[in-house]
């Protein structure tokens, strides 16, 4: 039997792999060894916070990593219970002696996966250069040395601060009925407790310990949101909330049991920040985000910065300052005045505050927003190719400049992240090869589903022809 150690490669945030295909304690100790070496060289004796979600063996992995980090003389502190990623990141950002975070989670992936996320001293992403350096220092054999570490309650201080960020008296006066679905993830009992402290009547589902998530994928979208949607409808709740596996992204369900699309949620939250809370600043979005948030930013007088896909690019803009909101395509929202990282729990509290103070239902608020910024239809389709064909399309992409798509002439062409074509009515289409998989992602948005789909079909055909 081949027992050679697996080669560990990092994605955008860290390392993810199937539990039956390489993600094990030996690998965790090897990665912690490389992190300990680099962090000690830069900041000997610094503090590292270690968190974990509710997945299989996450607590064991966290404690094993903490022991390895402590063997380098680092002060390792492990959460005393499963906790959301933004919670650990926030705690790290508040400590002058902390150098970073190691969080054990595979976020929205199914229970078959394990994961390890690395965060910096401010709780935000570390650089690609740092992750590459960690990769280069991963040894072939796990270290044997292990030091002592402490445990601490990260959730308490984080929640104490979080509930001060919204208008508690207005929320309590509204007496809202809320359904919370942590999807068996790290947010179990955390968001529900915060909402109860604020005076909401809370029904929580999928909060029991269940390492296989009872067949659920902890991703806040359909079809995994079905039971939350049904519970909102059957109980007559005002709002439903879902959190992904590590709590950095949220899904929101209206009073009719319909989940809001990320392209509805992002501009809705932006409107609340500017119009109701009096905040100001730029909005940073990825190029794959809906035109609706750009329209909302323009309506509100906010500057807009568009960046290629990847939260690290949003993070770099937030570090420059004057940013009120960072938004990703999939609904991850970051509020730099709070934390330079996505925080699904704060999103939920802001939505509760909006509904409580407006006196209107969530669906009414979304409809009102649509009347102001227009209604658009958004979708994405993945064109799967073999690796050679994907690379072939990637090679021809920089020179691709079509004069028309689906009989329409683009008014703007951008190669900043794939090929993005903009049309005169606000419609657009984007063809973007994945950086990690043999697939080209094609995005399209238009005022009607018919026009959107025509652009999508023509662009997918262009991808296949170019490959």
UniProtKB/TrEMBL annotation:
<feature type="domain" description="Alpha-D-phosphohexomutase alpha/beta/alpha">
    <location>
        <begin position="270"/>
        <end position="368"/>
    </location>
</feature>
<keyword id="KW-0413">Isomerase</keyword>
<protein>
    <submittedName>
        <fullName>Phosphoglucomutase</fullName>
    </submittedName>
</protein>
<feature type="domain" description="Alpha-D-phosphohexomutase alpha/beta/alpha">
    <location>
        <begin position="9"/>
        <end position="139"/>
    </location>
</feature>
<keyword id="KW-0479">Metal-binding</keyword>
<dbReference type="InterPro" id="IPR005844">
    <property type="entry name" value="A-D-PHexomutase_a/b/a-I"/>
</dbReference>
<keyword id="KW-0460">Magnesium</keyword>
<dbReference type="InterPro" id="IPR005845">
    <property type="entry name" value="A-D-PHexomutase_a/b/a-II"/>
</dbReference>
<dbReference type="InterPro" id="IPR016055">
    <property type="entry name" value="A-D-PHexomutase_a/b/a-I/II/III"/>
</dbReference>
<dbReference type="Pfam" id="PF02880">
    <property type="entry name" value="PGM_PMM_III"/>
</dbReference>
<dbReference type="Pfam" id="PF02879">
    <property type="entry name" value="PGM_PMM_II"/>
</dbReference>
<dbReference type="InterPro" id="IPR036900">
    <property type="entry name" value="A-D-PHexomutase_C_sf"/>
</dbReference>
<dbReference type="Pfam" id="PF02878">
    <property type="entry name" value="PGM_PMM_I"/>
</dbReference>
<keyword id="KW-0597">Phosphoprotein</keyword>
<comment type="similarity">
    <text>Belongs to the phosphohexose mutase family.</text>
</comment>
<feature type="domain" description="Alpha-D-phosphohexomutase alpha/beta/alpha">
    <location>
        <begin position="157"/>
        <end position="257"/>
    </location>
</feature>
<dbReference type="InterPro" id="IPR005841">
    <property type="entry name" value="Alpha-D-phosphohexomutase_SF"/>
</dbReference>
<dbReference type="InterPro" id="IPR005846">
    <property type="entry name" value="A-D-PHexomutase_a/b/a-III"/>
</dbReference>
